[in-house]
Every structure is written in structure tokens, then in C-alpha cells.
Amino acid sequence: xxxxxxxxxxxxxxxxxxxxxxxxxxxxxxxxxxxxxxxxxxxxxxxxxxxxxxxxxxxxxxxxxxxxxxxxxxxxxxxxxxxxxxxxxxxxxxxxxxxxxxxxxxxxxxxxxxxxxxxxxxxxxxxxxxxxxxxxxxxxxxxxxxxxxxxxxxxxxxxxxxxxxxxxxxxxxxxxxxxxxxxxxxxxxxxxxxxxxxxxxxxxxxxxxxxxxxxxxxxxxxxxxxxxxxxxxxxxxxxxxxxxxxxxxxxxxxxxxxxxxxxxxxxxxxxxxxxxxxxxxxxxxxxxxxxxxxxxxxxxxxxxxxxxxxxxxxxxxxxxxxxxxxxxxxxxxxx
Length: 335
What we know:
The protein is globular. The termini are far apart. 43% of the residues lie in helices and 15% in strands. By secondary structure, the chain is an alpha/beta fold. It has one domain (7-319): NAD(P)-binding Rossmann-like Domain (Rossmann fold, 3-Layer(aba) Sandwich), CATH 3.40.50. The longest helix is centred in the last third of the chain and has 31 residues, at 301-331.
């Protein structure tokens, strides 16, 4: 599992283990965190480290590829970083898998490969026309998978995520990006006073309340889809690209209202200008995933926000405990 110490990868690792799979996590920890891989074998390494990656790949029967830089704005400002990691690193991974005889690849792809879609909900047949370097790098890897399948029989499942959110119901792991750019944790941080007021990017879109509409999917629903996709390939399924979403959209205002309902606090906010390239509405057509993978998202927006709120509170308690422990050590250096 490449990038298994990150947000989505760490959730997928736990679901895989529950389903009886043995999981080896390979992560350079540039954005992932070792504590999210607790209880799993972790190899700290970069995909550009050919020798280390080859050694790990010898032990694999399938690969789940989560490792990527994933900030749209940053990709516009620093495309070199994105092409180096997402494209060059991705090709190194593909070649290591090919050389090791691994023929099943699960790839984390985003709905960003579609760009600004002509129709919503978005089916997989929509033309892929990404509008930023991040989306371009992901599309490149999808096309590389298609070429490797045709030439070498490397079967793949490209799983096109919509807006991943929420946390594991256990409260043990969740979303902890730095910097945080996702709406739900930012809204909850603003509600709790742990973060600045929430900035809304535009309220004049052609949507019911003027704010952008997105398809929010619980991270554990995503994780379960990865296991379904892996089993599909193991059982001899052909290479496939599928959307992972709920098929339902929620506006920014609706998400804020849910954050207020769950937290019991108002979300301080202000409206700023639109961001360039933000489509008014992105909602998945998830029918192909249901038909081919026998998968369907089951968790609601409320489930997402409740688990995110529980995780945030758990993290705040953990940080307080660490702070108190450090304070005690400072005051009592001989203990």
C-alpha cells in the first residue's frame, strides 16, 4: 500500500485487515503520519528509491496507490513538484510492480480528471479534460495504466473520488492535513474556536443557495470500495474506472448548517470571491460502481460530520495530554 500512512490509505488499511488481507504500508511520511500506520508493518521509503521499492514490491500480490501531492492551488503555483511526484514517481511505481510480477493495481484518482463537466451527475463516460496540473498528473497516470494493461496485462481499477470526508467511527484515525483545506474540518474548527472564521469562496453560483455543490463521501465508504475493487480484480475482473460518490450533492451552506447542528456552535464565516476553476456542481453518477463492484455508499452527510467532530475532539484531547506531559517533564526533570 503506497501512501498508506495518509488519510484515505490509513482507513483502507484497517478495512483490508478486517477483511483478512495482510497489509504492508510503504510511505515516505512527507504528508502521512507514522501514528496512522500503528499496528501495521511500515516501510519508510520514497517511490523514487528504486532499490527499497523493489524489495517491498517482491512481497506484494497487489498494489494500492494512494501517494500523491493533492493541492490544486499548489499544483498551479508549483507544477514541477506535481509532475515529479505524481508522474515520475507514479511511473517508478508502475515499473517496480511490473518487474516484480504484480498485475493488480488500485489507483486513487480524483473527479478532477473530468475538469468542468458538461452534465451532472457525472458518468465515467464524461470526457476527461482536467483544468489544473493536479488533475493533469492524475489523468496521465490513468492513461499510463491503460497502456500498461494493453501491453503487459496489468489490470487496474481507477477509483475516482469525489469529496472524501469524515473519520473512522472508532475515533482512532481521521483527517489531519497540514495545511487543512477541506471544508468540513475547517467549518468545525471555526465552530470550536480552534481555527479562523470560515471563508466561503463565492455565493453567486447558479445553485439553489448560490454556493458550490459537492458530493461528500465518508472515508470509510471509500475504504470499503477499495477492498471491493481489489476483490473484483483478484476474481478476474477486467480493468475499470469507477466513480466513488453518493450521487447526492450538498452545498457549502448545507454543510455549514450540519456542522452547526452537530457541534452546537455557530460557524463564523465570511464570503470571499470565487476561486478560479471551481465548477458550480460536482456530483457523481455511482451506478457503475454499484453494478460492477457491488458497492454503494451507506453513510450520510450527518454521519460524516459527526465522525469528523468526534475525531477533532479526540485530537484536541490528545494534544492537551501531550502538552501536559511535556509541561510535567519540564517542571520535574528528574522524574
